[in-house]
Amino acid sequence: MLLGSIEAGGTKFVCAVGDEDYRVKDRIQYPTTTPAETIQKAIDYFKQFSDLQAISVASFGPIEIRPEAERYGYITDTPKVGWANTNFLGMLKAAFDLPIYWTTDVNGSAYGEYILAREKDPNMSALTYYTIGTGVGAGTVLNGGFVGTLGHPEVGHVRLKRHPDDLDFKGICPYHGDCLEGLVSGPTFEARTGRKGETIPLTDHVWDIMAYYVAQAALQTTLHIRPQKIVFGGGVVSEAFLKKVRHEFAALLNDYQDVGKLDDYITMPLAAHNGSATIGDFALAYREVNQLVNQK
Amino acid sequence: MLLGSIEAGGTKFVCAVGDEDYRVKDRIQYPTTTPAETIQKAIDYFKQFSDLQAISVASFGPIEIRPEAERYGYITDTPKVGWANTNFLGMLKAAFDLPIYWTTDVNGSAYGEYILAREKDPNMSALTYYTIGTGVGAGTVLNGGFVGTLGHPEVGHVRLKRHPDDLDFKGICPYHGDCLEGLVSGPTFEARTGRKGETIPLTDHVWDIMAYYVAQAALQTTLHIRPQKIVFGGGVVSEAFLKKVRHEFAALLNDYQDVGKLDDYITMPLAAHNGSATIGDFALAYREVNQLVNQK
């Protein structure tokens, strides 16, 4: 069976086809330009595969994910120039007579990590995936579905207890200043230090401050949702950084809840090469095909 | 059909019987003393009703809610003297050959409010209930189940951005100092002002500080879970206080997400006289009976 994945990012698109074992058969990536040009490239790509069975899209947002909503399938009011109010799903549906699943980038990644985690632990039923990169967001898989009823989560904009050594930093979120994204997204390194994050060694104190905030996000997820696993991806994240995050998390939780072994609870993605969303898309596309078969 | 409810609080127990329309037929309440005495009183109460079909328990905690866990049905490591490691569900099961549902106090209340909200809006499928009283906690109903896989949520212990006029207050949580519960539970009034909360008029600035923190909790719930409604109960909460909370919430959210009309989104309980948990228990007990019937 041939399944399609679109990982639609604000910077680049990754389109891929794969099989029901989530193996990538072919893959392209290209920069995100205008909606018309960028989405047409995806359509042209998938048109090559006449035996394609379904497509799943993991898109940057905010997007409308409620099937009953008027603008279901749209990228809604994104600040990204030209992309607000784009009927992404509608353009795909006009081009393909196939089931197409539509969700957020982080939901796609969460689903991919959930699928991989289940291979190791069949009891896995609740997993949260965070991305800490240019932006910050999270998606949660719970009992096979996604958390988010009035719309998708926007965890990047919660407020946090400020680190005592970071009280003067105003944060960089244009909407909220010092929300999570305003405090820990990639561009905060330059805003704080004048240097890019990748040039700053992990021994620099700014990384302790970052870890304190990311640990609070993990604490919120733990205490609100109690998933079995929290996965961190995105350009800011490394295993060495997560060591710091676990340390701060343990101090914040103070043994109040049992989350099992911290090394298994707060982890890097299982998917190699940022492939979580592509695997998630294949699995969601496969699910669409099966649901269609079961309905018949 | 006769259904039983135990609302097991750290201060008092409320036991009631009611019907499948969630009408209370009989009700007693008594102070929480030792586990043996307090639970036996509940058993003696329900023994009067020979036609009882099922019982549901909404208990203070922390409790073990995972059916596969060794201590399922226990109150686990509560600081309440004498109650740690109490096999609450086991004592009930030894006394009654009936289906017994077991969940947290706030989950019971959340379920009751969900049932009542569905009577007004059949599309209601995700609701969070907070209690702000002696302690602080929340439960979320999502698609008919409860959020919480590794255990139940413990929202009371998240961290918050501190109010600029409250930076010197250390918070009163013995585990975490200035977590949500440490900043807004009922006893914080005395810790901050030397006076009991009920004697402090809503015009006092301490209520603005409280509203800022409670609004952050509502913001976290919104951005992590995106329920359709957030209900606040507990001794600290009043409609006048929630007006302040909505005001702070709107400022924090800054129109980043659409949550509909705020007056319908952040609300007092629909159940009168703190009856949310009793209604939730009746509904959960009724569900247990139906599941048993369907299995046959």
From TrEMBL, chains A, B:
Cofactor(s) named in the record: Mg(2+)
Q: Which UniProt keywords apply?
A: ATP-binding, Carbohydrate metabolism, Kinase, Magnesium, Metal-binding, Nucleotide-binding, Transferase, Zinc
Q: Which GO terms describe its molecular function?
A: ATP binding; fructokinase activity; metal ion binding
Query: Source organism's superkingdom?
Result: Bacteria
Q: What is its EC number?
A: 2.7.1.4
| Annotated catalysed reactions | D-fructose + ATP = D-fructose 6-phosphate + ADP + H(+)
Give one Pfam family, short name only: ROK
Report the NCBIfam families cross-referenced here.
FrctkaseScrK (NF045550)
Spell out the family assignment given in the record's similarity comment: Belongs to the ROK (NagC/XylR) family.
What is the official name of this protein in its record? Fructokinase
- What species is given as this protein's source? Secundilactobacillus pentosiphilus
The gene name reads scrK_1
